[in-house]
Amino acid sequence: MARAKGIKPMAQNKKAFHDYFVEERLECGMELKGTEVKSMRQGRMNLKESYAVVKNGEVFVQGMHISPYEQGNIFNTDPLRPKRLLLHRNQIRHLYQEVGKMGYALVPLSVYLKDGRFKMELGLCKGKKLHDKREDIAERDVKREMQRALRERNRT
pTM value? Predict the structure, then answer.
């Protein structure tokens, strides 16, 4: 079977953009089991409460929920098991130094299929304060009102 070319989004972490400022983005591979891949191809995963940690020179994503594969039996794994991310050594070293700084976190932003392989977009993020979130909500409301006004104007 030939691999599909291109990028197909599978899951997004919209909450990350609400809670964090994304300062840097990285694409990384994921080490997965067979039944996890089959379940992910069905779109049965959740990134909402997930985060990544650097330990012993490796990066792991924690809290990423992959539902058990329905046709799987003894080969199904724990839905919340830590999954290792595949990065170059210098990228891991850079992330470790940045996360050591105050207020930075590694947050999965999205999971997608790229040329038949699962990739994760990992963001180096800085946490937002409450007033920052309020500013974003206000900006979004203003944009929405402008779009409404333009639509109304174009109708007449």
Answer: 0.74
